[in-house]
């Protein structure tokens, strides 16, 4: 079972892994996706993944998420100012650094199939972005959600989450994914409450793990208090 203390330990490990003094001095603290880490912790715990393997995949997936998020922040327009140009170059390097840590974590653990799985998720994410930016699809107000969904879906398939939670697993986690949209979507609260209602219908079903329902309920209650 997951817990706040477990989440904290993983986040501490992740921070030690990704903090680079040069990047920190010039770009500030790394964009560690705390909610995403907690979601992965719940998901992999539900799949009964052994603790050490779970921590490896969480750190690797978080690094991949950070790489995609960081590269999304790179300005596309020409920059004349030398200082801003330097920041852009460092942002590119930061994204590359996080991406290399993703590969490193899985490679050191011998998780070659995991590398293939998440690399394919990255390709799908970038393909969606290219279609948006080339005008084939509407630009999403939340690029981060696309990245989170693709990575979570890849890991869920890799660890056969449907067997442990059911086919509705994404509906269960959707309210928590929407939390990162609260500053970007004008109807965020309405969408969030609708998603919670749908998730609760699944939580009440007999096959759904009781401990996971309690964890999700406590998390959403905590987030409600912080709104």
Descriptive report:
With 227 residues, the chain is an all-alpha fold. The chain folds into two domains: 4-161, Farnesyl Diphosphate Synthase; 165-227. It is built from eleven helices and no strands. The chain has helices at 4-18, 21-27, 34-46, 51-72, 82-108, 112-133, 143-158, 161-164, 169-178, 188-203, 210-226. Helix 3 runs antiparallel to helix 4 (51-72), helix 4 runs antiparallel to helix 7 (143-158) and helix 9 (169-178) runs antiparallel to helix 10 (188-203). The protein is globular, with a radius of gyration of 18 Å. The two termini are 27 Å apart. 27% of the residues are buried. It holds the Pfam family HEPPP_synt_1. One of its GO terms (biological process) is menaquinone biosynthetic process. It comes from Baia soyae. This is Heptaprenyl diphosphate synthase subunit 1.
